[in-house]
Design brief:
GO terms for molecular function: metal ion transmembrane transporter activity. Keywords: Membrane, Transmembrane, Transmembrane helix. It is a single chain. With about 280 residues, the protein is mostly helical. The chain has one domain. Helices cover about 80% and strands about 0% of the residues. It contains ten helices and no strands.
Length: about 280
C-alpha cells in the first residue's frame, strides 16, 4: 500500500501538477512566455536524456541474462520506431504540400505545440482548428496513460528510480502542456475549458499508474522491457520532438544558453540519481 501511495503521488506530480504549473505560466504576458519557453524545452531535453541513459537503460540490463541483451536492445529500438508510428497515427495534422503550417502567428507556442503532438496545425479557423483541439485531448490522454504505466514500472523496480523517472516526466510535461493550451485556445476553447480538459487528460497518468501497479505487481520479469520502452519514449521525445525546435535560432548566444540548460537538466537528474542511490 505504501508503494501504491507513492505511485499515486508521483503520477499526480507528473500529470496534474504539471498542467497547473503550465496554467500559471500562461498567466504571463505572451512576450514573456515566448522568451521563457525555449529555456524550458532545453532543460527538459537534458532531463529526459539523463533519465534514459543514466537511470533507465542501466537498470534495464542490470541482472539481465546475456541472452536477453539483444531482445532488450531490440525493445529500445522498437520503442523508438513505435512511438514514431504512434505519433503519425494519432497526432498527424494534415497540411498541404507536406509543409509546416504556422499556427496563429505565435511561432514559439505553435512550434512547441508541434513538438510533442506530431505535426502540423490545421489552418487558422473552422473545422480543422476544432478537430486539432479534440485530437490534442485524445492524444494527451493516451500519452499520459503511458507515462503513468512507465512511472509505476519504475517504482516497482526501485523506488528511487521511480522518483527520478517521475521528475523527468514532469520536466517535459510542463512545456508540453503550455503547447497544449496554445492549441486548445486557438481551437476556440475558453480559458476555463482548456484548463478543464487538460486536467482531465492529465488524470489518465494516475489511472495508468494505479492499473499498472495491480497488473504488474506479479510480472517482475516483464519490467525490464517496460523500462526499455520508457527509455525509448524519453529518447524519442527529446531527439525527435524537442531538439529540432531548438534549431530555429542559431546565433551563438542562444546556442550557448541551450547547451548550458541541457547540461543543467542532465546534471540535475544525474545528481539526484546518485544522491538517492547513495553514490
Amino acid at each position: 500500500m505504501h508503494l501504491l501511495l507513492l505511485i499515486i503521488i508521483f503520477t499526480a506530480i507528473g500529470g496534474v501538477l504539471s498542467v497547473l504549473a503550465a496554467a500559471i505560466f500562461l498567466l504571463l504576458s505572451e512576450q514573456r512566455r515566448n522568451a521563457l519557453l525555449p529555456h524550458g524545452i532545453s532543460f527538459a531535453i537534458g532531463a529526459l536524456l539523463a533519465v534514459a541513459f543514466w537511470g533507465l537503460i542501466p537498470e534495464v540490463f542490470t541482472g539481465a541474462k546475456p541472452e536477453q541483451f539483444q531482445a532488450l536492445s531490440g525493445t529500445i529500438l522498437a520503442g523508438i520506431l513505435g512511438f514514431f508510428v504512434l505519433e503519425k497515427l494519432l497526432l498527424w495534422r494534415h497540411c498541404h504540400y507536406g509543409e509546416h503550417c504556422e499556427a496563429h502567428g505565435d511561432d514559439a507556442d505553435a512550434e512547441h505545440a508541434h513538438h510533442d503532438h506530431g505535426g502540423h496545425n490545421h489552418g487558422h479557423h473552422g473545422h480543422g482548428a476544432k478537430s486539432a483541439g479534440s485530437l490534442i485531448i485524445v492524444g494527451d490522454s493516451i500519452h499520459n496513460f503511458v507515462d503513468g504505466v512507465l512511472i509505476a514500472a519504475a517504482f516497482l523496480t526501485d523506488v528511487q528510480l521511480g522518483i527520478v523517472t517521475s521528475l523527468a516526466v514532469a520536466a517535459h510535461e510542463i512545456p508540453q502542456e503550455v503547447g497544449d493550451f496554445a492549441i486548445l485556445l486557438h481551437s476556440g476553447y475558453s480559458n476555463a475549458k482548456a484548463l478543464f480538459y487538460n486536467v482531465l487528460a492529465s488524470l489518465s497518468t494516475v489511472l495508468g499508474g494505479v492499473l499498472a501497479y495491480f497488473c504488474l505487481a506479479d510480472l517482475h520479469d516483464k519490467l525490464p522491457y517496460l523500462l526499455a520502452l520508457a527509455a525509448s519514449s524519453f529518447i524519442y521525445i527529446a531527439v525527435a520532438d524537442l531538439i529540432p525546435s531548438l534549431h530555429k535560432k542559431t546565433d551563438m548566444k542562444t546556442s550557448l544558453q541551450q547547451i548550458m540548460l541541457i547540461a543543467a537538466g542532465v546534471g540535475l537528474i544525474c545528481t539526484l540519481h546518485n544522491i538517492v542511490h547513495g553514490h
